Amino acid sequence: MTLVLIHGSAHTAAVWERTQRALTAPSIALDLPGRASHPADITRVRLPDAADELVVDLKDVDGPLVLVGHSAGGMVLPFLAARLGGRVTGLVFVAGLIAAHGRRVVESVAPDRIDLMADRLAELRVEHAGCSLEDLPDSRVAQSIDSLNLMLQPISWDGVAEDLPRAWVRCLRDPIQPRALQEELATNAGARRRLDIDSGHTPALDCPADLAGLLAGLLEDL
Question: Do 94 and 120 meet the contact criterion of CB atoms below 8 Å apart?
């Protein structure tokens, strides 16, 4: 069983390096489009297209897969799971942004600011058209583009089995996600399991060994 690790906003697959060193299970960390191994216009990455690229990255990986998405990477999981079918034995959302079928994550995160966020994304698309992550001036701009672009897209759970095991990992010191939002996101994910980790928003950086241990425990239950 292989863990497929998908990063969040303004990151690349490299964010998982220390977690991978602490894992005993096989793992592969993938870059979303618009950075590193997948240069593209980061302002216009589409979730279905991102999933298509990740499927190609996994073509040489044999056996069952557990998909792990951190923050904005969580939005890719249902699209990727649908494309991989029965190979996927579980989904893990680490502070994962996700919505119910046909909904957008922005409806959970900022329901009263949807129009403002769409206007801001339009401005960023003009200002940074054609840029990959490495072309952007700083991580704050990258995080805004990644988050706004993906959160404003509808989520599809088509092709994902309702009984596919799903877990949502709550970061106890997360300055970005209040507890009520964390619970709503876990519900959106259809997660029957909630797990806590003593971490800020990005445990792959804050406590990679603890995250590796948590993921190892989840694998034993799948």
Answer: no
Distance, in Å, from the CA atom of 222 to the CA atom of 76, rounded to the nearest integer, reads 21
80 touches 5 (CB < 8 A):
no
Interatomic CA distance for residues 209 and 100, integer angstroms = 31
**Ordered DSSP codes for 125-171:** HHHTTT--GGGSS-HHHHHHHHHHHHHTSBP--TT--TTS-EEEEEE
Handedness of CA 206, 150, 110, 10 (dihedral sign): positive
* CA–CA gap between residue 105 and residue 111 (Å, rounded): 9
Residue 142, token pair as written in the block = 């990258």
Other beta carbons within 10 angstroms of residue 62's beta carbon come to: 9
Around Cβ 114, how many Cβ atoms within 10 Å?
A: 15
Q: What is the pLDDT along the chain (222 residues), one digit of tens a residue?
A: 899 999 999 999 999 999 999 999 999 999 999 998 899 999 999 999 999 999 999 999 999 999 999 999 999 999 999 999 999 999 999 999 999 999 999 999 999 999 999 999 999 999 999 999 999 989 999 999 999 999 999 999 999 999 999 999 999 999 999 999 999 999 999 999 999 999 999 999 999 999 999 999 998 876
